[in-house]
Structure formats: C-alpha cells, structure tokens
C-alpha cells in the first residue's frame, strides 16, 4: 500500500470507556511533539440522549462507537508509532493483525459524518412504533395513557381516551414513555 502525504481518516481501536482519555492524550502529544501539521481532527462520535429520572429531564452524551476513536492524519512512521504508544490505544484498524493501517474509504467517511451530524442534531434517541401504548409523563395530561397514531421527527400523535372519547394529542418524544 502506498503512503501518501495527504491527510486521511483512520480508526484507532481503544480500550472501551477510555475513548475521551485517548483523544485528550493525542491532543497533548500533538502539542508536545510539534506534529500538528501531520494530524487533523480527533473525533469520538457521541449521541445526545435525554433520560427522565424522577420526572426531570437529564441530557447525557453516549459514545456511539465504544472502543473506537477516529483520527484524520498523514500517517508517517513517526506519527503512527506515536499514536500506537498512547495509553489506551490497542491498535489501528487494519486488514490483518499487526498490518499496516487502512484509511477509511471516501464513502465510509461521508456516511460516518452524516451519522455524526444527524446524531448531534437529534435531541432524544427514543424509538417508538405506531400502535404502541405509551404513558404521558409531562404536561397537562400527566398520567393518561394512549396509543401512538403517527410519528413525526420530534413529536408523536397520540389517541387518548378522555371522558370516554378518543382525543388526539400531539406531544414531544420527551413527554411520553413506553408502558412496560
């Protein structure tokens, strides 16, 4: 495989749970060794989720690909060795064990950034399906149960039985929860 001097995206395998620590170490090594021209972005893809605990909304970030860090770099031997020696790094993703790192293909990078951008814009990662029974946990109709009729991007249309009549309600995804 021929080496190029243009930056490409590579995947580093890391100890799961240490992704942000690896990113921090890489950024420090870039400054310390003066190899900024060889390394571009270092990315740990996350998705933003909203959890409801005791009736309060809590925003959290969850790592989308546990055990992996994406790095844009011009992979020279010094840079490769430096990255492999960072605490928490297992290896580069390659075709065979101990083989030369393989850069991500252009369509993989585009798909990855499409996913990352989509996840950063989304507020909640809760999946509901049409016909599912849910309980209203926030708003005027707290405690009522209903059936999902339609699912929109950030809202759902529910059919709720109020005073013996089916009534349509439009609520955000954070105002409902699945009935278990």
From TrEMBL:
Belongs to the NusG family. Signal peptide: none annotated. Residues 6-116 form the NusG-like N-terminal domain. This is Transcription termination/antitermination protein NusG. The keyword Aminoacyl-tRNA synthetase does not apply. It comes from Candidatus Walczuchella monophlebidarum. One of its GO terms (cellular component) is cytosol. Participates in transcription elongation, termination and antitermination. One of its GO terms (biological process) is DNA-templated transcription termination. The gene is nusG. Keywords: Transcription, Transcription antitermination, Transcription regulation, Transcription termination.
């Amino acid at each position: 495989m021929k080496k190029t001097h243009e930056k490409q995206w590579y995947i580093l395998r890391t100890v799961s749970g240490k992704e942000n620590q690896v990113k921090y170490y890489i950024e420090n090594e870039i400054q310390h060794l003066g190899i900024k021209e060889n390394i571009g972005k270092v990315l740990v893809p996350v998705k933003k989720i909203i959890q409801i605990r005791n009736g309060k909304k809590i925003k959290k970030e969850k790592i989308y690909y546990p055990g992996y860090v994406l790095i844009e770099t011009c992979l020279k031997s010094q840079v490769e060795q430096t990255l492999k020696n960072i605490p928490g790094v297992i290896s580069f993703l390659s075709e065979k064990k101990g083989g030369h790192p393989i850069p991500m293909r252009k369509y993989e990078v585009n798909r990855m950034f499409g996913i990352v951008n989509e996840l950063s814009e989304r507020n909640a990662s809760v999946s509901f399906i049409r016909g599912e029974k849910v309980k209203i946990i926030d708003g005027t109709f707290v405690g009522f149960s209903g059936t999902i009729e339609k699912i929109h991007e950030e809202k759902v249309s529910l059919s709720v039985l109020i005073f013996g009549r089916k009534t349509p309600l439009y609520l955000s995804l954070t105002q409902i929860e699945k009935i278990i």
